[in-house]
């Protein structure tokens, strides 16, 4: 039996439901037959959802009202500011405090819907620079940017709420997700999707340095499947899982694949100091824990994923 069929007729909420990952997740939930609602910071029109809520995810009153009135089976927290570079300078940007929004959600669940499972979307940047490779879930967490620190704080809050109050939550650390998406105007929001957009526009791609740093790129469908499998087995409650393809690719090889597909050239230039300060070097993750406990594995290679993006 397909374990995802457990979502049929379930009540689910996707915070950040019109973003890159959130929208793909909401569509998949709808296809399965879930009564899926989304929450976003401004009014949006999304097909195939039961309800749409909007407001500031950092406002506890709004979050409490939504949770109290719906008693969701699962809440997926995909909301939040995603530009890790600008987060060093923008102190009051919308959704920057992932920790605060996570606390709001967990408090609302504790008060009004204690059986709701929270799936928290986190990031590889919680680890900072790799002390060893592949990076497993026991790796030290020393973020090099405020974005990573904020995601780490949210992770710690979720783990503590499970230990202290038995509020079920699962934390998913995503590597570098890519796939079909709305147009991206800033490389800092998602570098691989940004390069795909540039190539489709027949614009050259730029690599800082020699591009030899290794990365772990995971296709959006595999990310969504991991998020959906996360809350199904209670063994996952209070746990952290790394989600990536599990095999490293040199940054320049990632760019070369996109450039060939789009028939555009690649330029090399020295690292700007402000970018180099946040660079984490080689990173690829150990995914055996997710394979074993979530019964998940990546299925789409980088080459196939790029073909799908240009399809």
Description:
The structure is a single chain. The chain is globular. The chain has a single domain, classed as NAD(P)-binding Rossmann-like Domain (Rossmann fold, 3-Layer(aba) Sandwich). Helix 2 runs parallel beside helix 3 (98-112) and helix 7 packs parallel to helix 10. Residues 84-95 have low confidence and may be disordered. The protein has helices at 20-32, 60-70, 98-112, 146-165, 191-200, 220-229, 251-262, 273-276, 288-293, 302-310; strands at 11-15, 35-40, 51-54, 74-77, 117-123, 169-174, 176-178, 205-208, 214-215, 217-219, 239-243, 249-250, 266-269. By secondary structure, it is α/β, with parallel strands linked by helices. 35% of the residues lie in helices and 18% in strands. It has ten helices and 13 strands. The strands form four sheets. It has a seven-stranded parallel sheet, with helices on both faces. The two termini are 31 Å apart. Strand 1 (11-15), helix 1 (20-32) and strand 2 form a beta-alpha-beta unit.
Task: Describe the structure concisely for a colleague.
This protein has 311 residues and is an alpha/beta fold. It is built from ten helices and 13 strands. Helix 1 (20-32) packs across helix 6, helix 2 packs parallel to helix 3 (98-112) and helix 5 (191-200) packs parallel to helix 7.
The CATH superfamily is known as NAD(P)-binding Rossmann-like Domain
Counting H and I runs of at least 4 residues, what is the number of helices? 10
List low-confidence stretches. Answer: 84-95
CATH fold topology = Rossmann fold
Class by helix and strand content? alpha/beta
Give the oligomeric state of the chains in this entry, treating copies of one chain as homo and distinct chains as hetero: single chain
Number of strands: 13
Count of separate structural domains: 1
């Amino acid at each position: 039996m397909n374990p995802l069929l457990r979502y049929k007729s379930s009540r689910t909420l996707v915070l950040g439901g019109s973003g890159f990952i959130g929208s793909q997740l909401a569509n998949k939930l709808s296809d399965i037959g879930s009564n899926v609602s989304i929450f976003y910071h401004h009014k949006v029109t999304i097909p195939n959802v039961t309800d749409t809520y909007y407001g500031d995810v950092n406002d506890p009153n709004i979050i409490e009202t939504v949770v109290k009135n719906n008693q969701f089976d699962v809440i997926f927290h995909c909301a939040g500011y995603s530009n890790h570079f600008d987060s060093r300078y923008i102190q009051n940007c919308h959704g920057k405090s992932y920790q605060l929004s996570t606390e709001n959600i967990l408090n609302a669940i504790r008060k009004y819907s204690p059986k709701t499972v929270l799936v928290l979307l986190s990031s590889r940047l919680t680890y900072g620079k790799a002390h060893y490779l592949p990076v497993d879930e026991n790796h030290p967490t020393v973020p090099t940017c405020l974005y990573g620190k904020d995601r780490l704080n949210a992770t710690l809050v979720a783990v503590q709420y499970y230990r202290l109050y038995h509020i079920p939550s699962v934390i998913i650390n995503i590597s570098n997700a890519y796939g079909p998406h709305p147009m991206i105007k800033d490389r800092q929001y998602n570098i691989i999707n940004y390069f795909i957009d540039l190539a489709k526009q027949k614009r050259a791609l730029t690599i800082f340095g020699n591009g030899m740093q290794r990365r772990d790129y995971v296709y959006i469908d595999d990310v969504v499947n991991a998020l959906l499998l996360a809350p199904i087995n209670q063994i996952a409650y209070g746990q952290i899982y790394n989600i990536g393809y599990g095999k490293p690719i040199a940054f320049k090889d990632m760019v070369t694949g996109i450039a060939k597909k789009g028939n555009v050239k690649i330029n090399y230039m020295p690292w700007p100091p402000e970018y180099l300060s946040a660079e984490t070097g080689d990173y690829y993750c150990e995914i055996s824990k997710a394979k074993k406990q979530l019964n998940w594995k990546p299925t789409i290679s980088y080459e196939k994923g790029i073909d799908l993006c240009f399809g």
